[in-house]
Amino acid sequence: MSTLALRVLVTGAAGQIAYSLLYSIAKGDVFGKDQPIALLLLDITPMMPVLEGVVMEMQDCALPLLKEIIATDKEEVAFKDLDVAILVGSMPRRDGMERKDLLKANVAIFKSQGAALDKYAKKTVKVLVVGNPANTNCLIAAKSAPSIPKQNFSCLTRLDHNRARSQVAMKCGVPATQVKNVIIWGNHSSTQYPDVHHCVVNMSGSEVPCFDAVKDDAWLKGDFITTVQQRGAAVIKARKLSSAMSAAKAICDHMRELWSGTPQGEFTSMGIYSTGNSYGVPDDLVYSFPVHIKDKTWNIVDGLAINDFSRAKMEATAKELMEERDTAVEFLGV
Ligand code: NAD
Ligand code: LMR
């Protein structure tokens, strides 16, 4: 714990995810109940009046840890001396779109914000990319910030991880906390692979492999996977807006574990920069892996057995990420 305020940036601060997220950060759910926070809130110029309303509400929450709020439309103000950057601001998809359809609309934002991180933020800054397509935006942000270690960048697949956990929990009739070590491999897209081969379910005090607990292999290899892959689209179809409450909760889970570590014996999923040394995943992609986190540093969980079923799905999502990367690089000329 530090008595100095932690400088935390949230972009897209006038948007719907931020509206569910800011309160949790400012009240201590993410960085600890003793950690003072300075919140930097970035949005685009036309959204400044809305952002002013968000600032008023934050003030009216009268939160003891919230020492300062800076609302701005200027990157040089927003990215100054950051400890943490949560990059949400970008366009969400609408019904009928794939997340990669947002590539050309959004990726330029992450090139610009990567450069701003490079120029203004602390070199130790931890960067979480949420805006879609999250993996490729994260890759572009990391490439645009050459003075910041690529290890400091991650993208959000914790929402998919939580979705997978919850689906298994509901099937087994246990709370989601009794399901651990699901894995999301690859892209935060409909090619992601939610893998339960290493997942265990706590059933009446003993840890049971997921396949034995669920007792429905066809579901685990079929509808379970497609439900998780398509969950974002299902929420958009129903709400006419993309997920926000569950996305904000996942951002908090991701950041809290990045800050304080994963629980003993558990791993989580996050999109991280692949160096080509794990599970045959090509290098120069932001790919979701199972990770352990300690001392604010993630390490890929090594040595998990991968069968042919899993291998094919891991390769398919890597292929999509390579295509997205090549489109983004060509479009931006990075
Ligand atoms: P929203 O439209 O409600 O809010 C987005 C905000 O970003 C708006 O206020 C907009 O003005 C702002 N913005 C746009 N360009 C900006 C820029 N250059 N700098 C700063 N702010 C900018 O959208 P939302 O529902 O909050 O979703 C935001 C993004 O998060 C979308 O891309 C969405 O697809 C994505 N998302 C990702 C996940 C995930 O799991 N990775 C989950 C949910 C949503
Ligand atoms: C989600 O997974 O809910 C978000 O990425 C929003 C979307 O476009 O699906």
| Cα gyration radius (Å) | 19 Å
Strand order of the largest sheet: 3-2-1-4-5-6
CATH topology of the largest domain: L-2-Hydroxyisocaproate Dehydrogenase, Chain A, domain 2
Give the CA-based shape.
globular
Record field, number of beta strands: 14
Give the full name of the CATH homologous superfamily of the largest domain: Lactate dehydrogenase/glycoside hydrolase, family 4, C-terminal
What's the total helix number?
12
How much β-strand is present in the residues?
Answer: 15-25%
| Secondary-structure class | alpha/beta
Instruction: Work out the helicity level.
Output: 40-55%
List low-pLDDT spans: none
- Average pLDDT across residues? 97
GO biological process, one term: malate metabolic process
Keywords: NAD, Oxidoreductase, Tricarboxylic acid cycle
EC number: 1.1.1.37
Protein name: Malate dehydrogenase
3D architecture notes:
The protein is of the alpha/beta class. The protein folds into 2 domains: 6-155, NAD(P)-binding Rossmann-like Domain (Rossmann fold), CATH 3.40.50; 158-324, Alpha-Beta Complex (L-2-Hydroxyisocaproate Dehydrogenase, Chain A, domain 2), CATH 3.90.110. The protein has 12 helices and 14 strands. Strands 3-2-1-4-5-6 form a 6-stranded parallel beta sheet. The protein has a 3-stranded antiparallel beta sheet with strand order 7-10-11. Strands 12-13-14 form a 3-stranded antiparallel beta sheet. It is globular and about 55 Å long. The N and C termini lie far apart (38 Å). The model has no long low-confidence stretch (mean pLDDT 97). Bound molecules: nicotinamide-adenine-dinucleotide and (2S)-2-hydroxybutanedioic acid (LMR). (2S)-2-hydroxybutanedioic acid binds at residues 92-93, 99, 132, 159, 232-233, 235, 242-243.
